[in-house]
Amino acid sequence: MYRLLFFGFITSFFLGSSQTKSSTTFLDVNYFKGNIPIHNVDILHLVQGHPEGVIIGWNHRTNGKKEWEQRYNYPDYGASFMFQDLKNEVLGNTLGFYGHFNFYFLKRRLMLRVGQGIVVATNPYDKTSNPKNIAFGSKLLGSPYFMINYKKPNLLGPIGIQSGLVLAHASNGNFSAPNTSVNTIALNIGLNYDLDAKEIRYEEPLEISAVSKAVKYNIVFRTGLHQTDIVGSKRYPFYTVAAYADKQLNFFSGLQFGIEAFLSYALKEEINFRSLAYPEEQLNPDTDFKRLGGFLGYELFINQWSFIAQAGYYLYYPYDFEGRIYNRLGLKYYFNEKLFGVFSVKSHFANAESLEFGIGIRL
């Protein structure tokens, strides 16, 4: 299927009309093949071959009309679709739908794509029909992907080539157990094709505005549903409240420092379950399930969006769950200068604990 799709696009490219100028929009189609790295020994039985598939992207070039476009060297934004055959009947295939940005380096020959979206697993875990798929506990999964390519556009009229490396991840953030997740590392080769004859015209450099480097204070409330690691358990709500200070270093980057409190009713249920099911552990069922953590963070600003990466340590940790160190990756969207929304994944290294949805204020 994916090979026919890939070569079908190649044929249509060479039948297209010729043009030599960079246009405002372009398509790319990429074939990839690679490996599933073993991040958890529990998935050894699921790695039987080399996953392969196709990534199709629609892309719109920016022309510097906004300051952030010039600062980021005129990136592209767009949407992409990924089909992946995981080479295992237990895992099945995945169909991914993404929004993405393309960033350029080395005189626009090196392209870095950062995508975030949703994946549909064709054969998720089922206790009766598919009990061995401990990677995907639900049909819908969250999925980021990265693609770094050497790119040569307009090599033959509107047709160009690109090749490089693809990194993809799929997980439901412990919304539904089991959830060991799958990562793919692959090599790709593809073509890009300018869709229109309208030559992109870059705006004159704008006057660079000053960036406020004053310390800002933030309060964020996050919530969602997740399960314990016990397959078949109910989903329980969790609540997280964080207070932190941030300082923007320049137009692109900022640092964060703060504390946060965690209230997870799935963790409360796990404590109760283990105290009854494993009496040899002598676990007190009244052990406090609340946690308090301190964290350091980094924020990358891209127009009204930003990418966050945080590393934390539990200062109050009465129950041992996945270790005292945790991390968080996520996206923020600033509705205005003070109010923002956030979507993030909280993990303990490679083990996801929760998908978080939140809202915050920055003063």
Task: Note the main attributes of this structure.
363 residues, mainly beta, Porin, eight-stranded antiparallel beta barrel, flat
Give the structure's gist in a few sentences.
This protein has 363 residues and is mainly beta. It folds into two domains: 2-6 and 22-194, Porin, CATH 2.40.160.20; 215-362, Porin.
Task: Describe this structure as you would to a colleague.
The strands form 2 sheets. The protein has an 8-stranded antiparallel β-barrel. It is mainly beta. The chain is built from 3 helices and 16 strands. Mean pLDDT is 91; it is low at 13-20. It has helices at residues 2-14, 67-71, 265-277, and strands at residues 25-35, 52-61, 76-85, 93-105, 110-121, 140-156, 159-170, 182-194, 215-226, 236-248, 253-264, 291-302, 305-316, 325-334, 339-348, 351-362. The protein is 9% helix and 53% strand. The chain has 2 domains: 2-6 and 22-194, Porin, CATH 2.40.160; 215-362, Porin (Beta Barrel), CATH 2.40.160.20. The longest helix is centred in the N-terminal third of the chain and has 13 residues, at 2-14.
